[in-house]
């Protein structure tokens, strides 16, 4: 089945440690997005990528980094510079060829916690 | 920037009751999207609206694109326990004539259904 796979489902980080969250999609979508979700808040955009080898910062990019070496993969690294990384992280993808209103499709998220 | 105000923040209802929630913005939107998020999972698209005044149904769900293009409404009829979750409205962030597929999200409405 086509979809977006995020792994791991749960991740724990020690102080000062970088961790990488995986996002893979087999929907053949060009655009991919990373969001952070905190309790009681909507989704906030961290980074997005419209095409392979290109990505842009979203609203809360500080302390995060991404790469887009393959169309189907958009990993997110939470660096030690991110002082409050505990959150639910969601990856999404979209096919931009179908216009501005084309919805994003989401993975099932990774919950990151600090040890 | 474009922000979405969603209300109510939470609802506690009895099974069988109807539910109404809305989303408003100070900016005009050309697309309104409604998502549902089950606990521990990613949001799933319920309804997409592309035209002012449009009324679209998906089973027991009905959503409307406001005439002013600054609001949207979601109604759920005859609620059942599996309707429990967080409902988000979302719309494309447009800057310089394109959104690059970026979405802005409301804060979400948490729905609890008592059997």
Task: Explain what the structure shows.
- The complex is a heterodimer of chains A (about 120) and B (about 120).
- By secondary structure, chain A is an all-beta fold.
- In chain A, about 0% of the residues lie in helices and about 50% in strands.
- Chain A contains no helices and 11 strands.
- In chain A, strand 5 and strand 6 form a beta hairpin.
- The model of chain A has no long low-confidence stretch (mean pLDDT about 90).
- By secondary structure, chain B is mainly beta.
- Chain B has no helices and 11 strands.
- In chain B, the strands form 2 sheets. In chain B, strands 2, 4, 5, 9, 10 and 11 form a 6-stranded mixed β-sheet that branches. A 5-stranded antiparallel β-sheet of chain B has the order 1-3-8-7-6, with no helix packed on it.
- In chain B, a hairpin with a 5-residue loop joins strand 7 and strand 8.
- Chain B is globular and about 50 Å long.
- Chains A and B meet through strand 5, strand 9 and strand 10 of A and strand 5 and strand 10 of B.
Lay out the secondary structure.
The complex is a heterodimer of chains A (115) and B (115).
Chain A lengths: L3 E4 L2 E4 L5 E7 L5 E7 L5 E9 L2 E4 L6 E3 L9 E3 L8 E8 L10 E2 L3 E5 L1
Parallel strand pairs in A: 2-11
Antiparallel strand pairs in A: 1-3, 3-8, 4-5, 4-9, 5-6, 7-8, 9-10, 9-11
Chain B lengths: L3 E4 L2 E5 L4 E7 L6 E6 L6 E6 L5 E4 L2 E5 L5 E6 L8 E8 L10 E3 L3 E6 L1
Parallel strand pairs in B: 2-11
Antiparallel strand pairs in B: 1-3, 3-8, 4-5, 4-9, 6-7, 7-8, 9-10, 9-11
């Amino acid at each position: 089945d086509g979809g977006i796979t995020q792994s791991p489902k749960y991740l724990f980080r020690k102080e000062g440690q970088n961790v990488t969250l995986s996002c893979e999609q087999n929907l053949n979508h060009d655009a991919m997005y990373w969001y952070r979700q905190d309790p009681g808040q909507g989704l906030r955009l961290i980074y997005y990528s419209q095409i392979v080898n290109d990505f842009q910062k979203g609203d809360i990019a500080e302390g995060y980094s991404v790469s887009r070496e393959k169309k189907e993969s958009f990993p997110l690294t939470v660096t030690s510079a991110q002082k409050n990384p505990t959150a639910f992280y969601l990856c999404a993808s979209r096919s931009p060829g179908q216009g501005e209103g084309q919805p994003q499709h989401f993975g099932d998220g990774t919950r990151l916690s600090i040890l | 920037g474009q922000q979405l105000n969603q209300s109510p923040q939470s609802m506690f209802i009895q099974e069988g009751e109807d539910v109404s929630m809305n989303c408003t913005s100070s900016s005009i939107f050309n697309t309104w999207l409604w998502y549902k998020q089950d606990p521990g999972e990613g949001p799933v698209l319920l309804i997409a609206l592309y035209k002012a005044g449009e009324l679209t149904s998906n089973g027991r769900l009905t959503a409307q694109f406001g005439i002013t293009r600054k609001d949207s409404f979601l109604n759920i009829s005859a609620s059942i326990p599996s309707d429990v979750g967080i409902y988000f409205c979302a719309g494309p962030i447009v800057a310089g004539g394109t959104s690059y597929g970026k979405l802005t999200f409301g804060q979400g409405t948490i729905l609890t259904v008592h059997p």
